[in-house]
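Quick one, tokens below:
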């Protein structure tokens, strides 16, 4: 074993054992080289390797800090198995690093934290977001970016405000993000559904809606759809952008999991927009603390002034401390490193879900082929009602999310669940899917017994 490997393994052991606590600072490069009686270059190489493994991160002019700690859900010996929740696993949120960022934000932005700012957000943060989005093929200047209190706020404002096309109805995929359906219902907005399956959208049907109905905007989640877990093809995304221009329909692209994308060639619809009709929404809540409530909307020039008016009437401005923390995390590279760690962690869990369903579930069960993200849809056999089986599972502390909540009242819902891997480790996924199988068999056995008893009574 080489010298740098010895240094790396020793530091790794200290991190894993807790000798260097989460958020704790590593000894300086000089101190480590003196301790190990080696060159500084050897220590730097060892530290670089630990950074690549997402165990530590660097803070310019400060040093290196521990970033990864074991997941609370992984530490838990038993109890609740939650396939329903959509909030990030508390065990892999870098609380100590976020606290460091918040403390640093108070130091650097103290003068801005106690005054009303620009409703569109800190100019410096919007510049940082502009640079961050460029890696996703979103090229928009800070003047077109608005920082919002979570993607949900952006959706609420867009559903409320009038659009330049003078149209009023909102077209949504079926199934659809349940939060969007709820806010449209509360606002009394006319909503129209279009079917989306694992295979994608029927583009001919989409064009008929665009041509024949008064569609203000089409709300879509092209990447890692909620609840399907699948993504649209490049052909579909290009076609949507083209039809938006042809029929003067706006597109609201909810790209809430863009930072978890594993395919570098998977560009958003916004990258194919040449007419200024795509509103692009990005969430940071799945990477940082959801409670910080941070998102960004990239707006066409025709909507910027009106959106600003609606935004300022809503909250005057997004929380300054949250904005400052995000700017520091983007600028230091911590956000990007943590996103890479989460991509890897969630990728392993999604693979575990696919394998567990393949092992235990057949005879009418079918899991969507999600290649990433946090959701997959499980279709149930027609003889097993999604709500009934979900209720039986709750008795065993296994929780799932029936997709009936993801459909408009006028649309027949699928007999399926949305399964989330965001709060379940590999062992819990294995155990949970095995319990699904057992519970389904128990229900069928009970039905057979009841049916036999009734037949016997009838015969007597």
């Amino acid at each position: 074993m080489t010298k740098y490997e010895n240094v790396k393994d020793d530091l790794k052991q200290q991190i894993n054992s807790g000798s260097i606590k989460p958020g704790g600072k590593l000894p300086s490069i000089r101190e480590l080289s003196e301790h190990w009686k080696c060159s500084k270059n050897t220590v730097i190489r060892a530290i670089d390797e630990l950074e690549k493994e997402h165990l530590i991160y660097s803070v310019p002019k400060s040093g290196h800090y521990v970033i990864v700690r074991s997941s609370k859900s992984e530490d838990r010996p038993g109890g609740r198995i939650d396939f329903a929740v959509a909030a990030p696993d508390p065990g892999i949120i870098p609380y100590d690093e976020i606290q460091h960022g918040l403390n640093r934000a108070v130091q650097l932005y103290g003068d801005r934290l106690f005054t009303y700012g620009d409703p569109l957000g800190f100019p410096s943060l919007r510049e940082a977001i502009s640079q961050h989005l460029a890696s996703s093929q979103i090229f928009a200047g800070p003047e077109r970016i608005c920082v919002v209190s979570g993607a949900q706020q952006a959706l609420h404002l867009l559903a409320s405000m009038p659009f330049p096309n003078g149209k009023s109805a909102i077209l949504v995929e079926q199934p659809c993000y349940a939060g969007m359906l709820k806010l449209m219902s509360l606002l009394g907005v006319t909503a129209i559904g279009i079917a989306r399956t694992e295979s994608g959208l029927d583009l001919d049907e989409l064009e008929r809606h665009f041509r024949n109905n008064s569609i203000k905007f089409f709300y879509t989640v092209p990447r890692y759809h909620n609840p399907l877990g699948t993504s649209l093809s490049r052909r579909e995304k290009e076609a949507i952008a083209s039809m938006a221009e042809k029929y003067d329909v706006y597109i609201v692209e909810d790209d809430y999991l863009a930072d978890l994308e594993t395919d570098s060639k998977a560009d958003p619809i916004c990258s194919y927009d040449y007419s200024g009709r795509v509103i692009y929404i990005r969430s940071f809540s799945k990477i940082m603390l959801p409670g910080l409530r941070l998102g960004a909307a990239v707006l066409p020039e025709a909507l910027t002034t009106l959106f600003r008016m609606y935004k300022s009437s809503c909250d005057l401005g997004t929380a300054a401390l949250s904005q400052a923390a995000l700017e520091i995390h983007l600028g230091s590279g911590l956000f990007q490193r943590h996103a890479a760690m989460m991509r890897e962690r969630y990728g392993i869990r999604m693979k575990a879900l696919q394998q567990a369903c393949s092992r235990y579930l057949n005879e009418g069960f079918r899991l969507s082929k999600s290649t990433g993200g946090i959701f997959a849809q499980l279709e149930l056999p027609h003889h097993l009602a999604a709500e009934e089986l979900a209720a039986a599972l709750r008795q065993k502390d296994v929780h799932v999310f029936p997709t009936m909540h993801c459909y408009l009242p006028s649309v027949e819902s699928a007999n399926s669940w949305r399964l989330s891997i965001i709060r379940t480790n590999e062992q819990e996924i294995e155990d949970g899917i095995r319990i699904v199988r057992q519970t389904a068999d128990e229900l069928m056995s009970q039905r057979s017994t009841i049916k036999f008893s009734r037949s016997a009574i009838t015969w007597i």
